[in-house]
Design goal:
Shape: globular
Helix content: 10-25%
Number of helices: 4
Distance between the termini: 28 Å
Radius of gyration: 16 Å
Strand content: 15-25%
Strand order of the largest sheet: 6-5-4-3-7-8
Structural class: alpha+beta
Number of domains: 1
Largest sheet: 6 strands, antiparallel
């Protein structure tokens, strides 16, 4: 079965994915089981890229701010790779090298041109769970 949804709704559902193993079915089930008070406070298409404390240190990639302490992970060929934002830079935990973009970080793992925004999942210090890095780029 296929259900057609607007692009804005698809983006909002994608932003609610908890990690790479989560599914749209699970997101919708959680939403249907929630009371209105339990629902996320973001609106469909609402911007979610600004940090809560704009004076905190971190790094910008395109229009997305990732505060220091942000964790990133990606699984490729069965191996999970980790990175973090530290001292306002993207640091590969395995090599300790600085990366200049999500795609460069993905390339360093795969050896191929990869869309790093789709490759990585992220957990910022105040986030409850993991989400797609690309979901942070969503704009109204």
């Amino acid at each position: 079965m296929q259900i057609d949804v607007s692009f804005a709704l698809w983006k909002a559902l994608t932003a609610l994915l908890r990690d790479e193993h989560d599914s749209y079915d699970a997101v919708i089930e959680r939403l249907l089981e929630s009371s209105p008070d339990d629902l996320p406070k973001t609106e469909v298409g609402a911007e979610r890229t600004e940090p809560e404390d704009t004076s905190s240190a971190g790094a910008y990639f395109k229009e997305v701010f990732l505060p220091n302490g942000t964790e990133l992970r990606a699984t490729y060929k069965g191996k999970t790779h980790f990175a973090e934002i530290r001292d306002s830079e993207w640091i590969d935990r395995e090599s300790g090298r600085t990366r200049t973009s999500p795609s460069q970080a993905a390339y360093s793992i795969t050896g191929k041109n990869v869309n790093g925004w789709l490759f990585w999942i992220v957990k910022r210090p105040n986030d409850e769970g993991w989400r797609s890095l690309n979901a942070l780029r969503i704009r109204p």
